Amino acid sequence: MTEAEARDFICEMGRSMFERRLTFGSSGNISIKIADGWLMTPTGSSLGRLDPARLSKLDPQGQLIAGDAPTKESFLHLAMYRERAKAGAVVHLHATHSVAVSCLDGIDHEDVLPPITAYYVMRVGKLPLIPYYAPGDKTLGEAVGRAAAKHNAVLLANHGPVVAGTSLSAAVDAIEELEETARLYLLLHGRPTRYLNREHIEDLKRRFPPEG
Q1: Where do the structural domains in the chain lie, given as residue ranges?
Q2: At residue 63, does pLDDT exceed 70?
Q3: What is the pLDDT of residue 212?
Q4: Of the residues 3, 12, 19, 73, which is catalytic?
Q5: Residue 131 backbone dihedrals phi, psi, to 5 degrees
Q6: Is 119 an active-site residue?
Q7: Mean pLDDT of 178-200
Q8: Into which CATH architecture does domain 3-207 fall?
Q9: Hey, which residues does 31 pair with through a beta bridge?
Q10: Exposed, middle or buried by CB within 10 Å (0-12, 13-18, 19+), for 150?
């Protein structure tokens, strides 16, 4: 994918997620790894109205070299890339059902959502909860980095999910699966529920090894 194609694809996927109400207002951000750094959505921008020419371009050290100033949560993206060697893209959303789950009391901080469906296990796997930090707090990046060493997706408490994928399509697929699983979890909450068991999970891991 050329840089021009990557710019267009970020805008296309951002608009798609915005129009399907996976993010709102100026919340959420997207990045793609390119040959000489990263492309990121600018700070204060709506994913539904992105301009390919104004996307932020960062060098390999994470410094802005072209375009508008990057999302103020760029450090979350860079933390994921540092720990996920195969990551080609990162998506962060304030998706309603995922945020709702992140606010629940008594959830398992090591693995927030249960294995409701096979595709959740295949695309997300275990989902750790990162403790609450104020927006822009750089300490949050350190916490995300520690979790990202073992997980391609994390859920920020009272905030939303951050997901890395081998490509932007993979990252979007995973974060959408996470959001749908959060919705299912809330729908089933308090009802007797049959989740996938350990044998099911191990079988899926053998059949569909994680990509990174």
Answers
A1: 3-207
A2: yes
A3: 55
A4: 73
A5: -55, 160
A6: yes
A7: 96
A8: 3-Layer(aba) Sandwich (3.40)
A9: 40, 90
A10: exposed
Given a cut of 70, whether residue 134 has pLDDT beyond it is yes
pLDDT at 164 over 70: yes
Backbone angles phi, psi at 78, to 5 degrees: -65, -35
Amino acid at 40: M
- Mean pLDDT on 40-62: 97
How many separate helices (H) and strands (E) can be counted in the chain? 7, 8
Q: How many CA atoms lie within 13 A of 136 on its CB side?
A: 5
Q: Nearest Cα to 17, choosing from 27, 3, 8?
A: 27
156's enclosing H/E stretch is strand 153-156
pLDDT above 90 for 197: yes
Percent of the chain residues topping a pLDDT of 90: 94
The question of whether 110 is a catalytic residue gets the answer no
d(CA 57, CA 63): 8
Strand order across the 37-40 sheet: 64-66, 56-58, 37-40, 29-34, 89-92, 160-165, 153-156, 129-130
Reported as a single tens digit per residue, the pLDDT across 113-123 is 999 999 999 99
Query: Taking the mean position of all CA atoms in its chain, how far away is CA 44?
Result: 18
**Which range, of 61-65, 135-139, 142-146, averages the lowest pLDDT?**
135-139
Count of C-beta atoms within a 10 Å radius of residue 14: 26
Q: Which of 19, 119, 120, 132 is catalytic?
A: 119
Question: For residue 11, how many other CB atoms are within 10 A of its CB?
Answer: 21
